[in-house]
């Protein structure tokens, strides 16, 4: 499995519109949504509201979430699109994000 995050695996703003999203899991800081995708690969996107103050913090959490997806692609089933909404700002460290996303994807896979 290739450990890159290609253009076909990213969700863009236009991909969120007119798409029916189903909630797949929830943790104290994240909500995971999934939707059917026309692509053959799993796709991933992150939504962080400006309500969470500090652009540096918002961008850091987005980078960490994309990195989690890049390293754990096998846990995300294709051909689905996944979106993570950050509801509260977690501790912006790899360990905290990885632990919480691991629990979230395990719950989503069980559904």
Can you give keywords for this protein?
111 residues; 3 helices; Ribosomal Protein S5, domain 2; 4-stranded mixed beta sheet; single chain; alpha+beta
Give a structural overview.
With 111 residues, this protein is an alpha+beta fold. It has one domain (9-110): Ribosomal Protein S5, domain 2, CATH 3.30.230.10. It is built from 3 helices and 4 strands. A 4-stranded mixed sheet has the order 1-2-4-3. Strand 1 (22-26) and strand 2 (30-36) form a beta hairpin. The mean pLDDT is 85.
Summarize this entry quickly:
This protein has 111 residues and is an alpha+beta fold. The chain has three helices and four strands, in the order H-E-E-E-H-E-H. The protein has helices at residues 13-16, 55-71, 94-110; strands at 22-26, 30-36, 43-48, 80-86.
Q: Encode the helix/strand succession as letters.
A: HEEEHEH
Rounded to an integer in angstroms, the radius of gyration calculated over CA atoms is 13 Å
CATH architecture: 2-Layer Sandwich
Unreliably modeled segments: none
Major sheet size, sense and barrel closure: 4 strands, mixed
Mean pLDDT: 85
Structural class: alpha+beta
Distance between the termini: 24 Å
In total, the number of domains comes to 1
What proportion strand?
15-25%
CATH class: Alpha Beta
Shape: globular
Number of helices: 3
- Total beta-strand segments: 4
Fraction of residues in H or I helices:
25-40%
Widest sheet, order of strands: 1-2-4-3
């Amino acid at each position: 499995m290739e450990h890159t995050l290609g253009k076909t695996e990213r969700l863009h703003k236009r991909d969120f519109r007119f798409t029916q999203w189903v909630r797949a899991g929830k943790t104290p800081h994240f909500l995971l949504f999934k939707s059917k995708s026309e692509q053959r690969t799993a796709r991933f996107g992150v939504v962080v509201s400006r309500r969470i103050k500090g652009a540096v913090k918002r961008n850091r959490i987005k980078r960490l979430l994309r990195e989690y997806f890049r390293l754990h692609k096998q846990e995300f089933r294709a051909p689905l699109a996944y979106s993570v909404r950050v509801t509260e700002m977690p501790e912006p460290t790899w360990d905290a994000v990885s632990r919480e996303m691991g629990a979230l994807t395990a719950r989503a896979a069980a559904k």
